[in-house]
Amino acid sequence: MNNNLLVLQSDFGLVDGAVSAMIGVALEESQTLKIHHLTHDITPYNIFEGSY
After folding, report:
1. At 10, is the secondary structure helix, strand, or coil?
2. Could you tell me the pTM of the whole model?
3. How confident is the model over 40-51, as pLDDT tens digits?
4. Distance (Å, rounded) from C-alpha 4 to C-alpha 10?
């Protein structure tokens, strides 16, 4: 079974181009990816918040 789903979660925020760059790299690998954004507002370097 081939699953083309990518769920993104990061502490990048949305004010710069980091999330867009990550999407661009992923789409270079597979243009059929379905990308869903869980969150990009995790407090930077907060491992507990990211894992919760």
Report:
1. coil
2. 0.78
3. 999 999 999 999
4. 19
